[in-house]
Write a structure and sequence with these properties.
Low-confidence stretches: none
CATH superfamily of the largest domain: Zn peptidases
Order of helices and strands: EEEEEHEHHEEHEHEHEEEEEEEE
Number of strands: 18
Number of helices: 6
CATH class of the largest domain: Alpha Beta
Distance between the termini: 34 Å
Radius of gyration: 20 Å
Strand content: 25-35%
Bound molecules: zinc ion
Largest sheet: 5 strands, mixed, barrel
Number of domains: 2
Strand order of the largest sheet: 8-9-11-18-16
Mean pLDDT: 97
Length: 327
């Protein structure tokens, strides 16, 4: 376990009892570094390091707002160890307000562990994960539905038979939500939390909100998640809120459109539906319903749904339906 020593993230040098800021360089523009703001708050007493990051997908800014909110409240005198806030895991996607990295149109959270001599996204991933692995005892990656979709409030971790996975599952259950995705999905094999967990560092995602909006309730959920994880690790005082029962999901079916038009959802994020349940309607420009996408597994949890009246192409992701294994 990393003690609250004078560790470094880019130019931010952690110091006991202090809040420090700096930058971590993740790549280069033609004329300047591509860097993220890093803020580290360290307790007066030694303890573990929690790495929190936002905006690995550019439009998912709720986590960034929540980190700013949390940082206002942290008191080093009441902390053990450190909380490191990495504001922009993907700076160019933030600037471009784009889910995929604009430089190479890649989803950064599918290319981990990346490569030092790889493509732009692979290099960004490489610096991010190697830096996290060198300092963090746990990693919390904040996501939302961005501008296209809405998601419920849930914790997500990689479920395997390892100590890191079990610890990630414990931390996920301290995030202030009853909804837990214990993923076994191959398509998340290149996600940062998956690769870190397989390397022995407990890592998880918290999802909340989207639809192009960041209401206060969603900011509060992200703050609750960071606080609960930090309490579980002993960094912040107090005990995290825990529930008597959790709703748990394992594998996820991604539902894609076949037709194009305007999408009208008929389910809400977090609904549990049976196999074959109609998720919404795709309406063409004559006002005719041309498709009714359905849940392909059941009972399934609506982990993501396109926002109301979002225009869709054929082959756009309409929903994520997660198989319910406990409720
Ligand atoms: Zn995301």
């Amino acid at each position: 376990m990393a003690a609250a020593r004078n560790f470094r993230i880019g130019s931010a040098l952690a110091r006991p009892g202090k809040r420090v800021e700096g930058e971590l360089v993740l790549g280069h523009y033609p004329d300047a570094p591509i860097a993220t703001k890093v803020t580290i708050v360290s307790g007066t007493r030694p303890g573990p390091v929690l790495w929190v990051q936002g905006c690995i997908h550019g439009p998912e800014v709720g986590g960034v707002v929540a980190m700013l909110r949390l940082l206002e409240r942290l008191d080093p005198r009441r902390m053990r160890g450190s909380i490191a806030c990495i504001m922009l895991a993907n700076p160019t996607a933030f600037r471009g307000y784009s889910r995929n990295t604009p430089v190479d149109t890649t989803n950064l959270n599918r290319v981990f562990p990346g490569a030092a001599d790889g493509t732009h996204s692979q290099q960004n991933a490489h610096v991010l994960i190697e830096t996290a692995a060198s300092v963090a005892d746990a990693v919390l990656d904040l996501h939302s539905g961005g501008d296209r979709s809405r998601v419920p409030y849930y914790g997500l971790y990689w479920a395997e038979n390892s100590d890191a996975s079990r610890e990630a599952g414990r931390l996920a259950r301290a995030c202030g939500t009853r909804d837990i995705w214990a993923s076994i999905d191959d398509w998340l094999g290149g996600a940062m939390f998956t690769v870190l967990t397989k390397r022995g560092i407990p890592s998880l995602i918290v999802e909340c909100g989207g639809g192009g909006q960041v209401p206060e309730a969603h900011v509060a959920n992200f703050v609750a998640a960071m606080t609960g994880v930090a309490q579980s690790m002993g960094i912040l005082p107090g005990r995290p809120k825990r529930f008597a029962r959790y709703r748990v999901f394992d594998e996820s079916a991604l539902i894609y459109s076949r037709k194009g038009g305007l999408f009208r959802p008929l389910v809400e994020p977090g609904d549990i539906v049976e196999k074959g349940h109609v998720l919404g309607e795709i309406v063409d420009l004559s006002g005719k319903v041309v498709e009714r996408p359905r849940a392909s597994i059941g009972p399934s949890y609506i982990a993501s749904i396109r926002r109301p009246w979002m225009p869709v192409y054929s082959g756009d992701q309409i929903a994520e339906c997660n198989r319910v294994i406990a409720s």
